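Handoff note, outgoing to incoming analyst
You'll be picking up this chain. Sequence as last confirmed:
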Amino acid sequence: MNRIVRSLKIFYHHWMVVGFEKNIERIAIKHLHSLTELGDDWGMLELGARLENGASIEKNYKKAFECYSFVASRLSPCTKFAEFNIGNMYMNGLYHPKCEATASQWFFKSAQRGFAPAQYNYGLSLIDGWAGSNNETEGITWLQRASNNGLNDASMALKNILKGKSNEALRNET
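Most recent structure output, in case you need it:
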């Protein structure tokens, strides 16, 4: 299929997903499947999120993980979101057994791409030690990056850390 036809098909399916998303979810899912068949990263990422959360489609962590992994393996604007979602799946033990160290590695990949929630999670992993070792100084640096990128949770965490409140106590509050 030539590039122009592929681009038009992707545009059409994106438009159909957004247009039907609020009204007829099963049609949106159909168009997401079409986008994944076309190799569209956004479609694959969105389908993975719906499979993970069971949004109008049966939950399937394995397929969600596969969608995220496909997008994470490519260099696109969606990569950082896929890496973050994989980190969350490891953090919560969805599909793979819970592994905080592996989650931290995925958060780091996403954090390096500038995704504030990943910067926040990676910073917490360094401070709390679930990244494999404690490094409060580097953890604070990542929290500052997340805060600078507009993440209020990171600003609050920094404020509490600077007040001397342990991050574990902060986590128990939320």
